[in-house]
Amino acid sequence: MKKKLLCVALSAVLALSMAGCGLFGVKNDAPVPENAPSKAPSEDTTKSEEAKTDEPAKEQEKKPFTNDGIILVNPYRYNMTSLYVFNEDGSLADTYDLEPISEKLKESENESYTYLTYCDGIFFFSGYKYEDGDSYKKLVAYDSATDEITDVIYWGSDNIYDVEAYDGKLTCSLSTSDYSSWTVKCFEKEENSLTFREASPKYSDIYDQVSTYNVTNIERGCSMEHFLDKNGGFIASEGDKYYLVNADGSIEELTYLQDNFYSLQGNSKYACFTEHDDSYKTMGTFCMDLSTGEKKKLSDLSVITMGFENGIFYFAEKEDTEFNVFDLTIKSYNTATDELNTLFEKKTVPATEMFESVVTGFTLSDNKVFYTDIDEGKAKIYCADLADGKVSNETCTDLVTQTFTPYDYGTVEYRTVASYCPNCGIPLTQAYAETFVLDSKYSEHADEINASLKEHSDNFLAEYESPKESWLGEDEMNNCEGHQEYPDQYDMTDTDQVENVGIIDDHYLFIDTTGYWYGGGAHGMPSRGQHLFDLTTGKELNLTDFYKGTLEDYKALVAQKTKEDYESYASKGEVSPYFAENSQEVYDTAYESVQLDMNVYFREDGIIYYFYPYEMGSYADGFRDIFISYKDLLGRDNL
Q: Which residues span the domain enclosing 167?
């Protein structure tokens, strides 16, 4: 059972599951909660100062070096910036700011650290560095009480995952760099010392027996030891055959399972998964009785799997209602009672980065469930009682994990348009636009500003109200066979979304927008923009309304700042993201690319000039942002 990258990706991205084993999280740019206490390493002292809640909940008795009695909640989608520790009764015990710890662990600029788990005031991070053409990883522990740092597993080529403090030990899985084999390691912590000594895993014989098998259904954040204890076995494959590996060491071939499923969750009795046909078209999501092969269809859709706990499968149906607009229905299926329950029904909220309510941060314990939802433009943590796969007594904790700034200054509306092939009905163009609506309390000219913003959206959508014959060509416009076989390749899509709103010097309103155009191929193209308005006049402004210098001077200024950015990578010992091989080449490329009144964000203390992907670096490296202060640009400290 080779623990290949595909399986890790399915487990970590598709499964999105943690089911009572610690953290849930997938990467995010969410800020540190604005109204919660935090614990982080002190910048001025050698020891960390613990900043607890004003009235911390009573600490519940638990075994040494386990997370019994607490629930770890990471309510983010794209990265883990803060950790919330709750007691079993749903009360908040502590919060921690993880970013300062991550920075503190760095011994060089080419290292990065990602939070894995927590126990008894000790944080565990995975380290990564790329050096001399090779990747290295390690497992490191940080003691928040003493500021001490120690390596549990030193730099090596093995991948480290499924890390959890469980049953008095730190347990993790390791695989070779090519995922051809894997094993499990356990470590015992010495009392009163940040020292970890390797201990024998409970199921070491099983791991040795199936070390080359491909394991598909381990929950994110749950160690293999814990998974086997609570589920009695796991599903694995070798070649095109699937097996049930039981905790007692026996292995049974599962002749009913075929190689046409993904996002699998379950235990030794049931397996829940989404199934596809030979053309990878979704056939639905099913729950299979592993003893008989009998399947029950739970949904017609490919679902987001959220957890499998105590024989209950939690998942979300995400159904598109318009282009870039969806409904979320969160459900549970009880394998013991054959009950399928709807727990929550949520809709898209514009200007929230397509935030998936409830799914984001979904964390299960024996009798509680934690999740995030949008309330007045903010993502907040919610808690509810959980019994037999049903929720009750939903409570908002008022812990804010992310603020969507457009709702600080007004509201956001959205519209969609589409055009279709007149013969086969396949979409040929689809577009989605969000429009910010300013609250009148911020300007007497709010109506004028809002009319201007609506006009921008109207113009954007008008481009996609009819098929783009100039893009497809006449033959492809009428190629219904191709439309139906490859609908995504014939469907030009574009979005214009409100990302960030703010006011500069109590005078200027800015609205940042982001978008993504796709017209077939491996990937599309991201876009950016900004609208700037004078709140005292309602007039929309551009850079040339402030900058009175020459175009040549402006190009030279941006090129020089870009050159300095390029040189900063060498000074920090980091790999440059630029295509250019020397400073002069960077300067010349930037100088030729720069134009006035384009690619600019206005900020409180300066502008950000941004280059699109491929202009200065690869697509994967994204936009290249260059900051220029108003002092350098305008000769003054503010706009």
A: 5-41+62-403
